[in-house]
Hints:
Helix content is 28%, strand content 27%.
Amino acid sequence: MSHFLPYRFPLLFLFTLLFAATSYAAPAQPVPAPVLAAKSWILVEHATGQVLAANDPDSRIEPASLTKLMTAYLTFAALKAKRVTDDQLVQVSTAAWKQEGSRMFIEPRTPVAVSDLIRGVIVHSGNDASVALAELLGGNEKNFAEMMSREARRLGMKNTHFTNPTGLPQPEHYSTARDLATLASAIIHDFPDYYGLYSLKSFTYNRIEQSNRNRMLFIDPTVDGMKTGQTKEAGFCLVSSALRGSRRLVSVVLGASSDTARVQESLKLLNYGFQSHNMMRIYSANQPLKEFRVWRGAEKQVPAGFTEDFVMAMPKGKTNKIEPVLESREPIFAPLMKGQEIGVLKLTVDGELYGSFPVVALEDVPEGGFFGRLQDAVMLWFKNL
């Protein structure tokens, strides 16, 4: 199983998370991962995409109102691209008004601002608000659902398909814990200006105040999002994000038996992640790890490493048991550009592969002269005999 989500963030995003491994008093044994009363779950280190704990994270499930994370993602993208504006008024269709389930109570005779619809989706989990936004951005629900599925594929959500913007049950509407964690992390990373909406504890529209269904916001002050979901088939589901110090974790718990259970199990998972792992800097930016042979180049060697600080979450009690192995993608030919992938770093902990990471050239290597290239060609020929 991969220890990392497909969604990747620039390592520059990690600078605030750098800690020296020696600053921690590690316990003798790592903290064991919890077993939750749920169908599937996953816990992710937001900054690196590392999976810290998981159970059946790739099983397809009915995502219920967790679907609205993608409805919001596409709305945030449209706002960022200025295709729509916060104060833009939206005419409410009969289809949106008649939506069943959770609603923000919009009405056909009253145009609604985009900013209110977004809050209706996030705080009220409004099916009516979700359809209104879908019609605004996609023309109709079907087109918008196709947009949702395309965006899911772009983000690396390999086991997700959407057929509506609300999460109401349909046969071909599905996702997984891993994919939903990818989507949640993408919202946090791509739209920091809008992510704060997920911490709103209530919202009033049409003189009706509704509290956020995410009870984690009222229980743990470090939790600042994200979304609940519940249907008969899906059970009680919750995507949560917590920021403690400079570390952010994202948890997804699917198929719990009750609202109380999904909250308790989510807290258990988040607490495990913060208590069991530490962030540490493995290598500094532009630190040469090794020199690789370059063929046909003006230089015969090129330093390999990372152009930005390489940090990871490591299990407590295991930081002194990391074993790195650096492998070249031989043969390496000039010309080379700084930042070009030329090898892979494999980290093992207690003999178990913890992750593989691409290493890059730390310098440009232009192509060598004619006689140098000829000499290398002859040497390669003999080398390959």
